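Entry for the shared binder. Reason: the reviewer on the internal report wants the predicted structure included alongside the sequence.
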Amino acid sequence: MLDPKHLYWLAEITDLGSISRAAKKLHVTQPTLSRAVQVIEDQVGSPVLERTRHGVRPTTIGLRLAETGRTIAESRLQAETAVDLWRSGQDRELRIGVGPMLAVSVMGGFFSVLFENRPRYAVRVVSATAARLIERLNDGHLDIVLAPEQINLFQDNLIQHKLFDDQLAVFARPRHSLTTSGEGIDPDQLSGRKWIAIGALSGIYGSQKEILTGLGAEPATASITFTGDVVMAAEILKRTDALCIMPRVLARLSGVLAGVREVPLQVELPSRNIVLWCRRSERHRADILDFQKRLESYLSGVLAGQEA
């Protein structure tokens, strides 16, 4: 039977490309690592590493075993984290996924408040596209996801709790010809414009073609699409005549989008309400309920300030 420790060491050797560097990181001697590799090769019946001019690299079977070693390393890290949390008086770690628009708008302020008034659980935050976060929630790698309520794939094992209402809108720079008009723009005037997209590949937002078609405007494909990032898109909006569809409330609350203006339309775009996703089986977990209560309290103050 392969020793899990040896597989963990093999993963480190593979990632670093050197037995000597891995030995230094693992605080073991180089001969110890070499013997561990030899033991693996004897049990497998094939080399797991091959030497190159610059170090070592895994063979096909070595690469597969190194992947298992990385899983073992991750489990070790989780165990060590659990011990550290227990020693510091925190019960567990709450793993939270945050969509990119939330990340650049309200969540930084919220986590600042949470940092000053720490709960009994630690927090690990991951920011990515909503669809990727939902996948990780389904796989058990996240406990909570904060993202829009709409998603293309039905999730029977997940539930969502609405945090606040939001709606899609069209945005552009202040000097854009469509933002300087004092009246609502007919959707047909959106035809033939230059577009960029945020989150168009996330599985949450409809494509710009779908939204524009629904408005009766000429469908347009975004010339640049940003998945998982808002900052670069914000710079394009501020510097060019590009148009972009984004959630209205989150865009107004985002510092990186300060100065970008909404294009007044004669019609409303679809809603994109923000919700807290979690697994149905864990909806009554004390740490999830506590986090939800804290977040709702913070958001009520932020949204009230925006309306004032």
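Summary line for the report: The chain is about 45% helix and 20% strand.
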